[in-house]
Amino acid sequence: MASAIALFGMGVRDILLIERNNSLGGILNQCIHTGFGLSYYKEELTGPEYSMRMSRRFLDLGIPYQTDAMVIGMEGDKVLTITSECHGLQQIKAKAVILATGCRERTREAIEVAGSRPAGVFTAGQAQNLINLRHLRIGKKVIIQGSGDIGLIMARRLQLEGYEVIKVFERLPFLSGLIRNKIQCLDDYGIPLEFGAQITSINGRKRVESVDMVSLDSEFRPIAGSEKRYACDTVIFSVGLIQEMELGRSAGIAFSGQVPSINSKFETSVPGLFVAGNALHIHDLADGASLEGEIVAKSASLYLEDRERFRSEAKAEIPYRALEPDQGHDAAFFDRLREKGQIVCIVCPKGCLLSPDDYGCKRGKEHFLQERHGKKRILTTTIVAEYQNVERTLTVRSKDPLPFDALVPVKDMLRKIGKMDSLDFSVDSGGTRIEFAAVPLS
Amino acid sequence: MHESYDICVIGGGVVGTAIAREATKYCLKVLLLERCGDVAEGISKANSGVLHAGFNVKSGSLKARFNVEGLSFFPELAYQLDVPYRLCKKLVIAKDDSELPYLEKLLEQGKKNGSPGLSIIGEAEIRRLEPLISGRYALYSQRTAIISPYELTIAYAESAQANGADIRLLADVCAIERDEAEDCFIIRTADESIFRSRMVVNSAGNHSDKVASFPAEQKHRLHPCKGEYYVLDTDASRFLKMAVYPVPPADGSGLGVHLTPTINGNILIGPSADYLDDPDDLSTTKPVMELLKKEAFELLPALRSANFIKSYSGIRPKLFNSETGKTFEDFVIEQHPAFSRYLNLIGIESPGLTASPAIAKYVVEQFVSRYFPLIENERFNPIRKSPIRRTKFLTPDAIRKLIDENPTYGEVICRCEQVSKAEVLLALRNPLGAKTLNAIKKRTHAMMGRCQSGFCLPKIAGLLMDELGMEPDAIYRDEPDSRVFLGRSR
Ligand SMILES: Cc1cc2nc3c(=O)[nH]c(=O)nc-3n(C[C@H](O)[C@H](O)[C@H](O)COP(=O)(O)OP(=O)(O)OC[C@H]3O[C@@H](n4cnc5c(N)ncnc54)[C@H](O)[C@@H]3O)c2cc1C
Ligand SMILES: Cc1cc2nc3c(=O)[nH]c(=O)nc-3n(C[C@H](O)[C@H](O)[C@H](O)COP(=O)(O)OP(=O)(O)OC[C@H]3O[C@@H](n4cnc5c(N)ncnc54)[C@H](O)[C@@H]3O)c2cc1C
Prior knowledge:
The complex is a heterodimer.
Chain A: H1 2-9, E1 17-18, E2 34-36, E3 45-46, H2 47-61, E4 65-66, E5 69-74, E6 79-84, E7 88-93, E8 97-99, E9 103-105, E10 114-115, E11 121-123, H3 124-133, E12 136-137, E13 141-145, H4 149-160, E14 164-170, H5 179-186, E15 193-195, E16 197-203, E17 210-215, E18 228-231, E19 234-237, E20 241-243, H6 246-251, E21 255-256, E22 259-260, E23 273-275, H7 286-305, H8 307-313, H9 331-340, E24 343-344, E25 353-354, H10 362-373, E26 376-377, E27 380-387, E28 390-398, E29 402-403, H11 407-414, E30 419-420, E31 424-429, E32 432-440
Parallel strand pairs in A: 1-4, 8-23, 10-16, 11-19, 13-14, 13-19, 14-15, 27-30
Antiparallel strand pairs in A: 2-3, 5-6, 6-7, 9-20, 16-17, 17-18, 21-22, 24-25, 26-29, 27-28, 28-32, 31-32
Chain B: E1 3-10, H1 14-23, E2 30-33, E3 50-51, H2 62-72, H3 76-81, E4 85-86, E5 90-94, H4 100-113, E6 118-122, H5 123-129, E7 137-141, E8 145-147, H6 149-162, E9 166-168, E10 173-179, E11 184-189, E12 194-202, H7 208-212, E13 222-232, E14 243-246, E15 258-261, E16 267-270, E17 274-275, H8 286-299, E18 308-319, E19 332-335, E20 342-346, H9 352-371, H10 396-405, E21 412-414, E22 419-420, H11 421-428, H12 437-444, H13 456-467, E23 487-488
Parallel strand pairs in B: 1-2, 1-12, 2-9, 5-14, 12-20
Antiparallel strand pairs in B: 3-8, 4-8, 5-7, 6-7, 10-11, 11-12, 13-16, 13-17, 13-18, 15-16, 19-20, 21-22
Helix pairs in contact in B: 1-6, 1-9, 2-9, 11-12
The complex binds flavin-adenine dinucleotide (FAD) (2 copies).
The site of one flavin-adenine dinucleotide (FAD) has 41 residues of chain B, from helix 1, strand 18 and helix 9.
């Protein structure tokens, strides 16, 4: 959407956006937590709020699009084959194509987990979808492998939904996701995290019964004698994302390793075929993916307008930096924090270390003082309610942080809302009014 | 009154369903009982899927006979049953001169067995046929083919059902006794149903020794032998067209770790061979997974780690010959020592898939015929049409036509395997009434691609609930109670 909006802004009118989901927004729609948009919209939003903002803009411009439509093939000459229930099979030739097809999750095979294949094994994003969008209960006692952001976010979500998250294992000796996510998703709930450890085997015939894990040395070799078994009924893997590039592959683009080879204009080895967002490299922030979409739009527009200038400007250099986790957030780092009584700021993704001598910024100070007083957190959840005479799934967030202990009771209270007249609403909790904002997902 | 049948087949694997279908060619009342929620949940879902040419099996054995005869029914049978089949051909590779004698022995055995289309070829020819495979010599088998083993099983079962057989899923046979007065067997299942049948055919795969002992003790004991596999992404299929086997290990445990293309466009690597106690232990093990990966990288250096999308295992029902101590044992197809109308099929390991139509014919013509007059069923229809068209394999024009007729063919549910909503819905409404996630997998390949259901499970669960009205906690992976969801949270 960011690319299409930018292209429109540059005067390109013959645009078509094709999306296989039934709504615009991509993976954001299932990311009901806050943490999006601080740099792009200068405001902290939930995934659905971010996606709604962008799709409003997109729809206002009247850019043609199709949802529930999947590109099933693309030739090197940029002829796309699309199927959809509503338009049947279409074949379209484009002058330029931007692949913003996102990524998919690695599975247990990525870390060679042996054992049986019972029910109860999920990937984190899959669990997120099942819980947030389908309201399904996927288990009771959960082990999570992987400390990437999705794993951490899911740990909190599960805990709020009444699951018991027993432990999170991370193969690396340091945290792989954002430090603020460890604080607000694990530490807040007392969920233990073990570095340098991984699940080796899943046991159970019908449903998961337990997992075996082992500690790894610095070369990722299993340490003899460190094996342990944990009883659980659910295993969630959050072991990395991998670019969705099947269309690029079918069009015959060149790769370097797993990654599409591109020039400084985000153009692949097929002229006029561009890649942006998670499809190119994994962005930990949606903001970055959107900004990249705009930059790529600029390239594509130049390509359409002035091929010669485009060629002369295109250099053989990679125009982005691949995401690397901060290797400093290891066990010793978190021990030091505890010793020094420092707290990690969770107000923005920077994750500053706050102390009475150094509050980082004004909001950091507010946060620090509040933490001393008693934790407060934004509540995000989903509800099913009638809105505009249709029963829908809505994602809901509290406009202000709530006392930590109120999160679960208020969440349960929200479930009882049968009908809502406005997307901005409030509920009464023990005499205080709590304001909420909702986004309908269906 | 309990339902009464002429023949009760126990086991809905490729062999049992083939027998049930064969029996419906005659005027017989046929029942098939399968303990799982679908057919093809045993050995028949986890094997190499190869229609062997018949040079690997000892001359003069039932294995050799049924292998070669079974193969001769294909591809005709595959067309009749609308099961995808591909003549992929096969190379057995000798790495150096020292292995050449093995190939010569195989060639000679193959000729004796009557297996068609065999020759020994040299380096240059190997390279021409499979540019990425290296070897000094190879036994080149031009008649080796591949088929989807579970789709074949499903097709046999649907054909049998359409021709009058009763197929009962979730029917776990737990006791059988003889009723002399009524001249029949009384068959009891775990859910306390009772069936009566004048003849019993035990085709229970890895449990056939146990089922054989239900009416009275008998001597055969199976030794489950696990074979682990890796499945490679369809993306890797460009590396290989043929099945590529090494010279088999001397211990007779199997055919050695081989590369086999599948009908769906994946490549299988495996199987290993390890004896175990539990015939239902389908777990994979780290050492074997590492070994298979290593061998795969050696055979095909172009592979990437991301190409390995899944591991699984299958279990061979092995018989040992206690007298000779040798591991080669033939298929056992014989009447129960105490009851002549109780036919046991034990040790139907490889090439059981290939042999299935020949075994079925043999069972009906040699054994069933002794107790029932084989009167032709005039209404028998050999043709079975798969209700599902796999859009993935169709041309754009064919897809366009399909969507015009049924628009739900236009909505993709499983992205990796390009499976449409129509395909999933048709699979959900399969004639056998199988309702598990595995049932959908086997019929559509949804959830079997590179994301391993990450994206499509939510959608498929939604369809099961909305279209079939299933409660979330009734959605099973495969076996009863293999619950994927514990309920709803809203
Ligand atoms: C669980 C999770 C938590 C996250 N948390 C945060 C956070 O707190 N803060 C933050 O800023 N960022 C977060 N992110 C990152 C951010 O959401 C992503 O980086 C960003 O949304 C990626 O956008 P994208 O457009 O590149 O990909 P996507 O959102 O994945 O969009 C790709 C779209 O392409 C469609 N598509 C793919 N192939 C085809 C085809 N063949 N035909 C038609 N359509 C196709 C897909 O259906 C999809 O809708 C999170 C991500 C995840 C997964
Ligand atoms: C690793 C491996 C690779 C192989 N590769 C090949 C190959 O490439 N080519 C080839 O031709 N052959 C191959 N085979 C052999 C082939 O797969 C088998 O011979 C064939 O599938 C056996 O089918 P079946 O019907 O006898 O057994 P199964 O498919 O196991 O069917 C038996 C059924 O009986 C059911 N059952 C068991 N107990 C009961 C009970 N008490 N009540 C009701 N139902 C019961 C089970 O649930 C099962 O569904 C391979 C085998 C293995 C293990």
